[in-house]
Amino acid sequence: MPDAGGPWRDKPVEEEVKSTVPRGRVWVWLGFLVAVAALVGLLARLFPGQLTSGDDWAWFAWGIGLVVLVSVNILGRGPIRWGEKARHAAIWAAIVGVLVLGVTYQDELLGVGQRIRSEFSSSYPVATDAQELVVSQDPDGGFYLMGQVNGQAVRFLVDTGASETVLSPTDARRVGIDAAGLVFDHPSETANGVGYAAPFVADSLAVGSIKFANMPMLVNQAPMSSSLLGMTFLKRLDSFRVSGRKLYLKPR
Q1: 122-250 CATH
Q2: Which of 55, 86, 192, 222 is surrounded by the most beta carbons within 10 Å?
Q3: Residue range 158-208, pLDDT digits in tens
Q4: So where are the chain's domains?
Q5: Among residues 96, 32, 44, which one has the least CA distance to residue 69?
């Protein structure tokens, strides 16, 4: 009967060799850790004083520990497929690079999104580097601005010929104004003759980054296709101008 060897027999030489970590792979792992340490040192020199609290250091230590733990896979069995490792490293480097660029240029990227939205929906203003708001002309030739009255969205038609800022009855109801409590005693000339409106003071009127408190307005009695942003708003600006298909509003 052949000898089964039993549980105490010596392991085959081949198995012992396989379980041994190749010395070259250890050097690769140590080289990787040295590269990580060099990168950390470089970042510390470029961004001094970033780790100021205990929580910052704890997160830093956790990240370094995670890198070391994951990198232990280099010591695993099997040959190192350098081409595959290089592809994975390139993918992760690209992901990190995109995230870094996104954080670094977040304001610029937000501005691009705003400009695209402005072109497709011209009533949304875009902030420029010159501390101005820019709105594109609507296909019907007018300039419309999305604003907020007491926190509620209202779409205004910019009307330099209107002395007052006027809310349509529909927008007034959405803002929460009780028309029954208003007195419509303010006459105004319209295309259909004399109309009447009621004075109203909004807690706030905001258009993009421009915001005014205690804004006097009128609530129109008759239906309107759009609320009007008149001179009571425009006169509070430092300037406003039209250039080409753009309206530029500059706050004080």
Answers
A1: 2.40.70.10
A2: 222
A3: 998 888 999 999 999 999 998 888 999 888 765 556 789 999 999 999 998
A4: 13-104, 122-250
A5: 32
